[in-house]
Amino acid sequence: MADEQLLSGAVHLAQTIHTLQRGLTSIPLSDAILNIDTWFDQLQRSGIPDLQNVARELGNLQSLLSSGDAGLDGGAIGASLSMLGSQATELAVHADPDAQAELRTLGDLLLQAGASLSGQ
């Protein structure tokens, strides 16, 4: 069962990277929220404090994307993406060698997306 979860996480990581490589504007909002939900659930259930911290930031991002009538706050979304990028990069240092490169790639993509929305 743990091997299946690990494989599932690796596949989901690769899919998330592929999606981000196409650019933020290519991602329908509903797909982004579904992806965030999936990551949130996986990380929250992990029981690992560093991963649960990432889950909390994902919850923040989901709230920002679900703001409805208030409109989307690009600066706040950018800051959240940048935080998630930093967290992914930090996690890469301690990750399994097979996941390090993908986590660094994910971190870089999130940092770039965050900077583009924050105007940095």
Topology:
Blueprint: H1 2-21, H2 29-45, H3 49-65, H4 74-94, H5 97-118
Description:
Helices cover 81% and strands 0% of the residues. It is built from 5 helices and no strands. The chain starts with a helix and ends with a helix. The chain is mainly α and 120 residues long. It has one domain (2-118).
How does the overall form come out from the CA principal axes?
globular
End-to-end gap: 43 Å
Task: Compute the CA-based radius of gyration.
Answer: 14 Å
How many helices?
5
- Beta-strand percent range: under 5%
Kindly state the mean pLDDT as a whole number? Answer: 90
Overall tally of domains: 1
**Main beta-sheet strand count, sense and barrel state:** none
Low-confidence stretches: 1-7
Helix-strand sequence: HHHHH
Summarize the model shown.
It is built from five helices and no strands.
Features:
single chain, 120 residues, mainly alpha, 5 helices
